[in-house]
Design a protein that fits this description.
Layout (H helix, E strand, L loop, with lengths): L9 E4 L2 E6 L2 E5 L4 H13 L16 E5 L14 E5 H7 L4 H8 L4 H22 L9 E3 L10 H5 L2 H13 L6 E4 L4 E3 L1 H9 L5 E6 L2 E3 L2
Parallel strand pairs: 3-10, 7-9
Antiparallel strand pairs: 1-2, 2-3, 4-5, 6-9, 7-8
Length: 217
């Protein structure tokens, strides 16, 4: 997968850094990939206008929305993030982009409530089908090696996020989201999903390989 990138970009935080050179994003010294994607999205799409309603954004009302929501396996990459106001973010909540537009086009309040209930029921069906809902060309199931340091295993396994993954897998039989790796097979995001898969000998892992991102840590 190729993610959207600005022509020029440089980011540095706590000794980690990232930069765009010749349409490739290079990450160095274990940069927080999710935080990096937030900064890259603002650089790419701006900070001044809400993607949904067009209102002016400021420090008080500015946020980023996952077009495919986190609750539905939405990952933090530029292709899935847009700047928006807190009001639109709350209204859209856990709907996908197209679902939200269709939902807002329903004028009758009773029908709108019923339509949202139907959508959420459909989400639950997708979870049983494959765990999450993302475009098929964004990810693939793979057993290829993903390079990551698996440290402090027991400590991580006691955390709420790891328990969520365990409970999700127990209920639906699928992982809740794909992991993200660089073009050189370094893990960028989804450490706990990868850890759970390894601990439970899950061979086929949903994975997004970002062809224009290279980890040089």
């Amino acid at each position: 997968m190729i993610i959207d990138l600005p022509t020029k970009f440089y980011y540095e935080k706590d000794g980690s850094k990232a930069f765009v050179d010749n349409e490739i994003l290079y990450c160095e010294n274990n940069v927080s990939f999710e935080r990096l994607m937030y900064h890259t999205t603002y650089e790419l799409r701006g900070k001044s206008t809400c993607y949904y309603c067009g209102c002016e954004l400021n420090e008080e009302n500015r946020t980023l929305d996952h077009m495919y929501p986190r609750d539905f396996g939405g990952v933090s990459i530029t292709n899935n993030l847009v700047p928006c106001c807190t009001n639109c973010n709350q209204k859209k909540n856990n709907l996908t982009l197209n679902e939200y537009f269709d939902y807002m086009n329903v004028q009758d309040a009773k029908k709108r409530k019923q339509y949202k209930s139907e959508l959420l029921h459909r989400h639950e069906e997708y979870r049983y089908e494959k765990g999450f809902y993302l475009p098929d060309n964004w990810y693939e199931y793979t057993s290829d090696r993903i390079y990551a340091e698996i440290l402090l295993t027991e400590e991580y396994k006691q955390g709420k996020r790891y328990n969520f993954i365990r409970e999700f897998y127990t209920k639906y039989g699928h992982l809740p989201r794909p992991v993200i790796k660089s073009a050189n097979n370094r893990l960028l995001d989804g450490f706990l999903v990868l850890l759970f898969a390894k601990e439970n000998q899950i061979e086929q892992i949903p994975c997004m390989k970002l062809q224009n991102v290279i980890d040089i840590s």
